[in-house]
Amino acid sequence: MANLNTRWRQENTYDAIVVGSGMTGGWAAKELSEKGLKTLVLERGRMVRHLEDYPTAATHPWEVKYPRAKLPPDELKAKYPVQNRTGYALTEYTQHFFVRDDENPYTEDQPFDWIRGYHVGGRSLLWARQSYRWSDLDFEANAKEGVGVDWPIRYRDIAPWYDYVERYIGVSGQAEGLPQLPDGVFQPPMEMNCVEKVLKAKTEARFPERRVTIGRCAHLTEPTEEQIALGRGKCQHRNMCMRGCPFGAYFSSNAVTLVAAEKTGNFKLRPHSIVTEILYDEAKGRADGVRVQDETTGETMEFYAKVIFVCASALNSTWLMMNSTSRRFPNGFGNGSDQLGRNIMDHHLGVGAMAEAPGYEDRYYSGRRPNGLYIPRFRNLGDAATKRTDYLRGFGYQGGAGRPNWDRNLHAAGLGGARKDELSQPGPWMVRIGGFGEILPHADNRVTLNRDRKDRYGLPTLRFDAGLRENETAMRRDMKTAAVEMLEAAGFTNVIGYETPSPPGLGIHEMGTARMGRDPKTSVLNAHNQVHECRNVYVTDGACMTSASCVNPSLTYMALTARACAHAVEASRRGEL
Amino acid sequence: MQSRRDALLSFAAVWGALSLPAGTAAAGAQPAVTVGANPGWTPTGVSPSQAQVLDALSELIAPGTDTPGTREAGVPAYVDRTIAGYCTAVEAGEFRSVLDALDADARARHGKGFAALSTSEQTAIAATYDKGQKFSPFGRLKEVVLVGYFSSEPGATLAVRYDPIPGDYKGCIPLSEVGRAWAL
After folding, report:
1. Quick check: B156 and A363 CB within 8 A?
2. Which of A237, A435, B72, B84 is a plausible cystine mate for B68, CB 3.0–4.6 Å?
């Protein structure tokens, strides 16, 4: 029996375990396996293989069942009441990449839109691919303003890792030389259309502090040999990314990092594996492995490793740590600070302006650019000219111009061939810019473990109590005003500012619930994403974020993950874990 | 609580409101369909008589011109499937009521069913419901017809331009190089 146990334990022992296979889990898998560590990736959902498991990638509009490929209202209400809150993401084309809400419940003391997909690759298949660097404006803000805790790193610590990640994944973008939005390793930028070029010229002439650039996105526009060798190709401008890309042209775990990990021979992926607990060895004072509940059989099992990377997405990593209690950690794994689950952040959005751009009726475009404009932050940059007295931090805009196709105003009066022919021509040029604003960390914007409400696996669920505060509300007023004045300055007509409520979660950038910091008393993770109180556990997804910036966060998560992997391999070699 | 969906919907509403005025209906004199003809498909969401009205209404909304009409594009059957398999029970009932009302009006005015009327007679009746109200049953049914048409293979590839794999993006070209709106 003892021998059997020993053998069983050996067979289930790896050098490294990675929890999750999405944006950061994929990176941890690649980095650790490439550095020679036998790496087990545990994914709670089903397998999704690049290319073969993208069933709708080549589906034509006439091959879907429902109008505009939207699911029937009764089905949305019964199965996807939360996932459908984005309004755009969940369709027949993408349904298989979103969780069913009836099977994955949580509790909202305040509204929280928790949009997610449980499968290999996670939301790396679904992301909007916008890729921006943080700057020291972001890393220093908490310390300068006395908000939350100080980041334990600065831009110089992460800059080489941004280089490393961008070079590998491929980011299309335009260098702008802005201190608040550092340039990166870019493939050729995508083109702006006629009206976007007008917006750029007019905005920059009228507002010298504002820059209109093309979005920086993780699409290949000039693939490197390394990318081609992985089976990736140039972006074909289909803009059907969320179905999975048959060209491997945008970055996803499935198309890139998991493929690279597979090539090492050091990598094993186990789908259907819900990691329910991090096992803590009191005698050794470190984590020993993880407990897994098989999603399909209900069987529980344990896997062991010297180092564990928790990359399950911010809230699920937090859930896992909260559910991992022991004598050493009665309030959750590594939670001596009581910060686990607190300081939940996202980006607030749903506010901006739109307009009509007459005068370019004879102009059009070809191709579906999977990318838009970006207007980097221009408020509170540290100088007197951009200083706001009504709020801290800032926002960027994303948007673009285009001409609506036939799908416009279909209910309008009019029957017959003339109406049909009218709809067969493009509509008027329209412009829209929408803000993405920074949310400040608040200790009582939090998520807690709800042991009274269990999911279908008998596991506890999460309870959300977080909302926007005064700083965000004040910022939103400015986001609308500044957007309107830009579209007016560009000479566009029918300029309309809009603002709709933006509950946390809707940005799908949830973060901050196991923050990095310098002091174990006030933070969960150290400068290398190690749990302060258990150094062989690293948390590198959005949970680690000490503040939110206003830029899309995935690039930063990837860079922090690669950096933490290098640290883990070195620390392991030195016997420090 | 308003969500991004609502935000986008309201954006779409403004977008739509800013589009060009609606075209005028083409008036024709010839009967739109042979009286009592089988529409060529088996209805599952509407009754056989409602199917005849649907077939006629659909072609009235987007008839064949130099590009295919809804009948050629299979739209009536598409709308029927939508009523059977997509709409809520309430909306399905409203759509059937629209079809019944058109037929009843036709019989009251002309003593025969909607499908048996000339295009101009059909247009006159349909115009009493076609008021451009976004959330009216007629407006929503018309929307389903038009979405079905422009999403169909003939609609997407002939009435507008469809390019599944564009390859490149060109941001500023003469409209004449494309000629029509893009399907997507």
Report:
1. no
2. B72
Q: What is the rounded CA–CA span in Å between residue A462 and residue A432?
A: 36
Tell whether A359 is within 8 A of chain B (Cβ): no
Among the partner-chain residues A72, A84, A413, the one whose CB lies closest to the CB of B132 is A413
What's A237's DSSP letter?
-
In a domain, B166, yes or no: yes
| Claim to verify: residue A280 and residue A359 sit in the same structural domain | no
Partner-chain residue, chosen from A192, A428, A503, that has the shortest CB–CB distance to B1: A503
Q: Are strands A351-356 and A430-438 parallel, antiparallel or unpaired?
A: antiparallel
Interface mutation target, options A236, A406, A433, A498, chain B, most CBs of B under 10 Å: A406
- Supply the CATH number for residue A493's domain: 3.30.410
- Cβ atoms B117, B106 nearer than 8 A: yes
Whether chain A has a CB inside 8 Å of the CB on B14: the answer is: yes
Compute the distance between CA of residue B175 and CA of residue A364 in angstroms, rounded to an integer.
5
User: Using the beta-carbon criterion (under 8 Å), do A366 and B65 form an inter-chain contact?
Assistant: no
Nearest CA to B90 out of B146, B135, B41 is that of B135
Q: How many domains does chain B have?
A: 1
Residue type, B106: A
The interface pTM score, or ipTM, of the predicted complex is 0.94
Question: pLDDT (tens digit, 0 to 9) for every residue of chain A, 577 residues total?
Answer: 557 778 889 999 999 999 999 999 999 999 999 999 999 999 999 999 999 999 999 999 999 999 999 999 999 999 999 999 998 899 999 999 999 999 999 999 999 999 999 999 999 999 999 999 999 999 999 999 999 999 999 999 999 999 999 999 999 999 999 999 999 999 999 999 999 999 999 999 999 999 999 999 999 999 999 999 999 999 999 999 999 999 999 999 999 999 999 999 999 999 999 999 999 999 999 999 999 999 999 999 999 999 999 999 999 999 999 999 999 999 999 999 999 999 999 999 999 999 999 999 999 999 999 999 999 999 999 999 999 999 999 999 999 999 999 999 999 999 999 999 999 999 999 999 999 999 999 999 999 999 999 999 999 999 999 999 999 999 999 999 999 999 999 999 999 999 999 999 999 999 999 999 999 999 999 999 999 999 999 999 999 999 999 999 999 999 999 999 999 999 999 999 8
Range of the domain at A525: 13-99+117-167+252-343+511-577
pTM (2 decimals)?
Answer: 0.94
Residues A33 and A162 in one domain: yes
C-alpha span between A219 and A199 (Å, rounded):
24
Name the A residues in 420-449 with CB < 8 Å from any B CB.
Answer: 420-428, 430, 432
CB contact under 8 A, A413 and B22: yes
Domain count, chain A: 2
Q: Which residues on A lie below 8 Å from B171 (Cβ)?
A: 191-194, 196-197, 365, 369
Task: Assign residue A279 the CATH number of its domain.
Answer: 3.50.50.60
Q: Are residues A406 and A286 part of one domain?
A: no
A555, A165 contact by CB (below 8 A): yes
The rounded distance, in Å, linking the Cα atoms of A245 and A251 is 9
- A275 and A412 in a single domain? The answer is no
* Residue in A112, A356, A407, A502 to test binding to B, most B beta-carbons within 10 Å: A407
Domain around B41: 26-178
Cβ of A191 within 8 Å of Cβ of B169? The answer is yes
Rg of the Cα atoms in chain B: 18
